[in-house]
Amino acid sequence: MKVLVIGSGAREHALVRALLVDPAVDAVVAAPGNPGIDVIALCVPVDARDPQAVTDLAREHGVDLVVVGPEAPLVAGVADAVRAAGIACFGPDRAAATLEGSKAFAKEVMAAAEVPTALAHVARTEAELTEALDAFGAPYVVKDDGLAAGKGVVVTDDRGAALAHGLACLAKGDDAQVVVEEFLDGPEASLFCICDGQRVVPLDLAQDFKRVFDGDEGPNTGGMGAYSPLDWAPEGLVDDVVARVAQPVVDEMRRRGTPFVGVLYVGLALTSRGPRVIEFNVRFGDPETQSVLARLATPLGGLLHAAAQGRLGEVEPLRWREQASVTVVVAAAGYPASPSTGDPIAGLELVGDSDTYVLHAGTAAGPDGTVVSAGGRVLSVVSLGADLDEARERAYAGVAKVELEGSHHRTDIALRAARGEIRTPR
């Protein structure tokens, strides 16, 4: 089997790496890829959001499966074009991708499927926005309705800041809308569900860290780190979420004539009233994917191909490594407000064994062949260990070997979990 992976981040690097160890996968092509992926697979500079260009590339290389990493190509209809060409594609079509492309639509689907989630108001005017803020009160949760690369949500006790974010979302166009929600208490968890339009196969739970600084301080980011598994999660949580959330949503999408094929990412708050959905994404999340795939022992290519072809019913129960995995994101100076780019990265060759490795995200090839920073989140350092303590120790030892001027990272990824300090509300 030959696989084409669409995207250029650490998530795609993790996907390529996992696909290449599947005995059924002969070769992987990445578009556009990055310098890290280029070491292990063929990278082709193609616009990932151009459905025709992606389809032409898939035809040119005779691939058997296309795996779409980021959300933007899905919302642009890349999966539609690939399937229309008769090529298997892991990723939802444009209509189904609206589950992430519009938070208001996601709320509508959740209501129809009776999925437990936060109460919400969709505001289209300043008057509706202020009314919703006053109805829910602090802490205020205000979400941009459209795609925002994980940074469209503001959670704050400051009503002025909440109002300003909501107005900025409404200012994006005549059809702009903003979602205001009730605040959900309790720790958060991420569950990736592999879907083939009818069936759901869950992966293992992970937790990510959105805020830029230790102690969950500072602005939201695309994610500063993650770990898996969640030993503190209630027993039976995954089965409960599949039964009450993922399967009903897949059933509802099929009923609407837009079957969902790909990853349904369920962002959860484990509240005193039970699990509640915070959001859906329609692709693997970054950086949770890096930790989850590090632990997956089942060959990835066969799993994704079965989903793309509607054959999840034939898949054997997933196998998992017993180790824990921790992912630490190394961010550029100035991230997230104004990340510095073009800075040389050294020490990458010092990090690389079966337990700890570097995945590239915001990197590029410099003029002299060196690797330089080219984005906000530059690298993910992923490690496996017998437990979270050992995985943390190895991950941070790897981070310490990487040299990037002005770079920063959180030092508390998985720390509270390793200490046994996370509790779900009763």
From TrEMBL:
One of its GO terms (biological process) is 'de novo' IMP biosynthetic process. InterPro entries: ATP-grasp (IPR011761), ATP_grasp_subdomain_1 (IPR013815), PreATP-grasp_dom_sf (IPR016185), PRibGlycinamid_synth_ATP-grasp (IPR020561), PRibGlycinamide_synth (IPR000115), PRibGlycinamide_synth_C-dom (IPR020560), PRibGlycinamide_synth_C_sf (IPR037123), PRibGlycinamide_synth_CS (IPR020559). The keyword Cell division does not apply. Pathway: Purine metabolism; IMP biosynthesis via de novo pathway; N(1)-(5-phospho-D-ribosyl)glycinamide from 5-phospho-alpha-D-ribose 1-diphosphate: step 2/2. The keyword ATP-binding applies. Its cofactor is Mn(2+); Mg(2+). It catalyses: 5-phospho-beta-D-ribosylamine + glycine + ATP = N(1)-(5-phospho-beta-D-ribosyl)glycinamide + ADP + phosphate + H(+). GO terms for molecular function: ATP binding; metal ion binding; phosphoribosylamine-glycine ligase activity. Its EC number is 6.3.4.13. Residues 107-309 form the ATP-grasp domain. Keywords: ATP-binding, Ligase, Nucleotide-binding, Purine biosynthesis. Signal peptide: none annotated. This is Phosphoribosylamine--glycine ligase. It comes from Janibacter melonis.
